[in-house]
Amino acid sequence: MREDECECVGYARCQGWVIPFAGTILGGLLPGEMVLIQGSVPSDADRFQVDFTCGSSVKPRADVAFHFNPRFRRSACVVCNSLQSERWGREEVLHAKPFAAGETFELIVLVLKDAFKVAVNGAHVLEYKHRVDLDRVDTLSISGKVHVGAVGILANTGGPGRPDVADLAARKRRVQPLRVAGQLQGRGPGPIRTQGQESP
């Protein structure tokens, strides 16, 4: 691959994504990939969520492999969980405030064989062990009070070891915006995974 070619598996940037958003991750997620979300939190936000799901069914509700839910009211925290067979598991609560209302952010979810590793604005926030098989995850959804400017999946360019979030800077320098045409059920750009071609 030439240095000027896009090494992203899928990357879409637009003036503002329509929230709630649900996009298909064509081919699913693979260990070593990084999901990048850039946006901002409105000053009146109470919460938002990023979900990695197994399909987009509403009835019965699709399983949620990773529910990442920053909350801003009362005591700020991040709630993580999984939904299986329409039942939520045990919540994992991080009493921290990695996001600030009224501020921009860059959220990175590093996909590992056994966990999701999350960083916000370059700082490690948490690690969430898989409760649902990674090979079932095929949809990314974003909802709540949040503005999203870019979403991307960056391919694993390293070896078979455990990649680290610090490796992202080198990958991002080679990521170029990918034009996305069309809408997914009227809720945002179409599929977010392409390999060497534009989305339909």
Question: Can you give me a brief rundown of this structure?
Answer:
With 200 residues, this protein is mainly β. The chain has one helix at 168-173, and strands at residues 8-13, 21-24, 34-40, 48-53, 64-71, 77-84, 87-88, 92-94, 104-111, 115-120, 123-129, 139-144, 147-154.
Secondary structure category: mainly beta
How many individual helices?
1
CATH architecture of the domain at 8-45 and 101-173: Sandwich
- The helix-strand sequence is EEEEEEEEEEEEEH
The general outline is: globular
CATH topology of the domain at 8-45 and 101-173: Jelly Rolls
Mean pLDDT: 78
Which segments are poorly predicted (pLDDT under 50) over 5 or more consecutive residues? 1-15, 169-200
Estimated radius of gyration? 16 Å
State the name of the first-level CATH class of the domain at 8-45 and 101-173.
Mainly Beta
Keywords: Lectin, Repeat
GO molecular function, one term: carbohydrate binding
Protein name: Galectin
Region (Disordered): 180-200
